[in-house]
Specification:
The chain is of the alpha+beta class and about 550 residues long. It contains 16 helices and 22 strands. The strands form 4 sheets. It has a 6-stranded antiparallel sheet. Strand 15 and strand 16 form a beta hairpin. It starts with a helix and ends in a 6-residue tail after the last strand.
């Protein structure tokens, strides 16, 4: 929300009396005007039932429930207004004009606000109260807008999507046009220009902007350097520009026919991410000083949100580069064929620690690895890099069953790495070039490999299951499993992003994968991998790694 001090000041200095009631109609706050009007202190009214305390006869008899319009408005949670009398602390009846309005959040009524103006028989008082009501409704709308913006920006980590959501909220609700300029390492860039015209016209104003001129006094330059929000009228817009950047801004504002402009910094005083320009093109509703604080608050929200998305984007690029650099070229031993794919999580989702690997061992077998470090951040990607290197070294150094190597890896994980938990499959593909071939593997908590035979049958290899890495139970030895591999069969290793369907359990995703993979049994290996990815469940927010092996046909 906007800074609490600002709204406290509005509440305290509103000319009409204001009482805020909870869901039981008990008073939780009153402003000084209400204290003066009712002749009661805030502490004396706090926690009291509004109607029982104030709406009584002098003889202390509660007014009948009907036709009491005020009680009806409170009990039915109605927006209403009327003229009545309320009771002061010394027993005097005070004529008032009142207005009630429910306070809601996500459709739930949290309480009521009651505005009161003295002398309910005075027509001027009623007019004044109506003006206060209009002002309060406007403030409520602006608070709701600020809350909507905060919610919308918090729901995405993608910069373009954040800007699109902002545009939908601000245009035309608060402005006819907006422009967003960001400070980057290369200079200033206009990343968005959103208005009522076609998208092609919006994009014409986007792109790199001239450098900041330290001698320029233009409004945009001052704001980009961390200055206060600037309110511009027609005279300001018509001023000759004093720098190339000011010339671009002036050209933009004149081209869209701006008549009133408000430019506010994005971010905080300590870190200005850029500037937000709001422009109105009609003479009927220029920006006023009361809107500066609201839009300044929006600027802080937008700046922080964009800063977060940009920081996340940089982190994501680093993590993806780390993952891709570790995904080395696959060996093609003899007539065996291997293929792999890595697909990053969708834009705006967090990076993960998925990886695959395949390499030749000293005894001639081919090692196959698929793994996933728990977590979705740069730390998970870094942990993946550590496990990748350690597992390669251990598998090369030791000639033994996969379970012994993974047990040794599990013992090293808490000592050498910061990886909390991880899943992995280590397999040995064994056999002479002419066949037969077999797979020996151990599975540390990972989804099971899928074996697809050339006749279209698909079977999950669920043997060899053991504890995932990082449980601290390294004294429990893992099992190994062995299965013969028929000629022209396809072996598929994958990470859970391939089978996770939001809102369902993994069994549904596993059945879906088995069905699609079986239908691809006779496809060439690269096409097999591409088609498997193409049939991923909709809505996944995880990255995916997969490794596939095609067993050669029997030699003739």
């Amino acid at each position: 929300m906007t800074q609490p001090g600002f709204w406290r000041e509005v509440f305290d200095h509103l000319g009409a009396g204001v009482a805020v009631l909870d869901s039981s109609d008990r008073i939780i706050a009153v402003n000084p005007a209400a204290e003066e009007l009712l002749g009661r202190t805030a502490s004396a009214m706090s926690g009291q039932d509004f109607h029982l305390l104030l709406h009584r006869h002098v003889e202390d008899a509660t007014l009948p429930q009907e036709p009491c319009r005020l009680l009806t408005a409170l009990t039915r949670r109605l927006r209403a207004r009327g003229a009545d009398t309320l009771l002061s602390e010394d027993g005097h009846l005070i004529p008032v004009t009142w207005f009630s309005d429910p306070v809601t959040r996500n459709g739930e009524v949290l309480g009521m606000i009651v505005l009161m103006s003295g002398d309910g028989t005075d027509r001027e008082a009623a007019v004044n109260l109506a003006a206060h009501v209009t002002a309060l409704e406007d403030l409520t709308d602006r608070l709701a807008l600020a809350a909507e913006i905060a919610t919308a920006l918090a729901q995405t980590l993608d910069t373009e999507e954040a800007l699109a959501r902002l545009g939908r909220l601000l245009v035309p609700r608060l402005a006819d046009w907006i422009a967003i300029d960001l400070r980057t390492d290369e200079g200033v860039r206009r990343v968005a220009a959103i208005g009522p015209e076609s998208r092609a016209e919006w994009e014409a104003w986007q792109g790199p902007l001239p450098a900041l001129d330290e001698h320029s006094r233009s409004s945009l330059v001052r704001v980009l350097r961390g200055g206060d929000p600037v309110l511009m009228g027609l005279g300001d817009i018509a001023q000759p520009p004093d720098s190339p950047l000011a010339a671009v801004q002036t050209g933009f504002l004149q081209a869209i026919g701006a008549t009133s402009v408000l430019i506010t910094p994005l971010g905080t005083v300590r870190r200005v991410t850029g500037a937000l320009t709001l422009a109105r093109t009609g003479a009927a509703r220029p920006f006023d000083s009361a809107e500066v604080s609201l839009i300044g608050d929006i600027g802080r929200r937008v700046g922080l949100a964009i800063d977060n998305t940009l920081r996340f984007g940089r982190q994501r690029q680093i993590a993806e580069a780390m993952q891709r650099n570790l995904l080395a070229s696959l060996p093609q031993p003899g007539r065996l064929r291997l293929a792999a794919r890595y697909q990053p999580a969708p834009a705006g989702s967090q990076v993960g620690g998925d990886w695959y690997d395949a390499f030749l061992l000293r005894d001639g077998a081919t090692a196959l690895v698929i793994g996933d470090v728990v977590g979705h951040d740069l730390a998970a990607a870094a942990g993946m890099a550590q496990l990748h290197g350690m597992l390669r070294a251990l598998a090369w150094d030791r000639t033994g069953p996969p379970s012994a190597i993974v047990d040794r890896l599990d013992q090293a994980v808490p000592v050498i790495t910061n990886v909390p938990l991880a899943t992995v499959i280590l397999a040995r593909l064994e056999g002479p070039d002419e066949g037969p071939w077999q797979l020996r593997w151990t599975n540390a908590g990972h989804p099971p490999p899928l074996l697809v035979t050339p006749d279209g049958r698909a079977e999950f290899l669920e043997q060899g299951q053991g504890l995932l890495l990082g449980t601290g139970l390294s004294d429990v030895s893992r099992p190994d499993a062995t299965v013969p591999l028929p000629p022209r069969a396809t072996l598929l290793f994958y990470t859970d992003g391939l089978i996770e369907i939001p809102g369902t359990d993994l069994d549904i995703g596993l059945r879906r994968l088995r069905r699609h993979a079986a239908a691809l049994a006779c496809h060439v290996l690269d096409d097999f991998c591409d088609q498997v990815l193409a049939h991923m469940p909709p809505g996944t927010a995880d990255d995916v790694a997969l490794l596939a092996v095609r067993i050669p046909a029997a030699s003739e």
